[in-house]
Amino acid sequence: MALVPILIYHSISRAPMPLIADFAVDEATFAAHLDAVAQRGLRCLTVSGLLDAVDAGDEALVERAALITFDDGFADFRAAALPALRERGLASTLYVATGLLRGGPQPPVHDGIAPYMLELAELRELAGAGVELGAHSHTHPHMDTLGTRRARYEIERSRALVEDAAGAPVATFAYPHGYSGPRIRRLVREAGYRGACGVKNALSSTTDDRFALARLLVRADTTAQEVGRWLDRTGAPPPPRRDSARTIGWRAYRRARAVVRRRPGSDEGWPSVR
Fold first, then answer.
1. Do 127 and 166 touch, CB atoms closer than 8 A?
2. From CA 51, how far away is CA 54, in angstroms rounded?
């Protein structure tokens, strides 16, 4: 199997929203991360581009590839991340939680987060600039704690809003907080997506579950040297072949806790963006 690093970023800012500070990278550090990609001569693919390569059996391309993804839809993606990416000719995939954005058909679901987010209308410009847009739910819930009806709403509503605003198709999904499970993955597949991203803090591969692609979470203290090891396929493990017993048990506990507390979608209070 061919291994490939899929990086997850959230915010590129020296003064991020406090909620996301642990997962925000300043502009200089982000530039150093991108330079590590460019210096190695890696081919930067979108998530759909990776799926195309896997479907074509092009392991040689996967072995020389890297993916840069962003979750949530912070405004600094347009202001800081995209210029740095374009300067180096690097592709990216942006997963948007539509209910957090400004300028939608309804007010943003979280007033404290909204000032830091993109406007829905800006998605058309981003799509025109070559950014692949993906769905990241509507209200950014813990998907594995939701009932089926609400989960379908989150999966389908986000895609509909992004496609309408951007005038571009949405082919892939990313699970908020990284949580999914077989039931949620099945719903994403049934909704017609080509694939979906989780987290796992592992390299992805040509044999990875395409509805739970492994990604590497970039934190505020992630150095260019650490990213370099990921890019060299030496600094992280391959994706697990199946969910561990610990993961399955933790998922069951979280779902039961949400039912008992009558707070589906929440885990010790929302939001805890990860």
1. yes
2. 5
Q: pLDDT, tens digit, for every residue of 149-158? A: 999 999 999 9
Render 85-142 in DSSP notation, one character per residue.
HHHHT---EEEE-GGGSBSSSS--S-TTTGGGBPBTTHHHHHHHTTPEEEE--SS---
d(CA 180, CA 29): 30
- The answer to whether the beta carbons of residues 97 and 88 sit under 8 Å apart is no
3 state DSSP class of 198: strand
User: What distance in Å separates the CA atoms of residue 224 and residue 236, rounded to the nearest whole number?
Assistant: 14
Q: Token digits for 28?
A: 């200089």
Domains and CATH numbers, the chain: 3-261 (3.20.20.370)
Residue 240: per-residue pLDDT: 86
pLDDT at 248: 57
- Hey, what's the torsion of the CAs at 262, 116, 174, 91, to 10 degrees? 180
Provide the total of helices (H) and of strands (E) in the chain, helices listed first.
10, 12
Separation of alpha carbons 8 and 217, rounded Å = 5
> Does the CA dihedral 104-210-6-49 come out positive or negative?
negative
Neighbours of 116 (CB within 10 A): 19
Contact between residue 138 and residue 170 where contact means Cβ atoms under 8 Å apart: no
pLDDT tens-place string over residues 108-130:
999 999 999 999 999 999 999 99
Contact 218, 19 (CB under 8 A): no
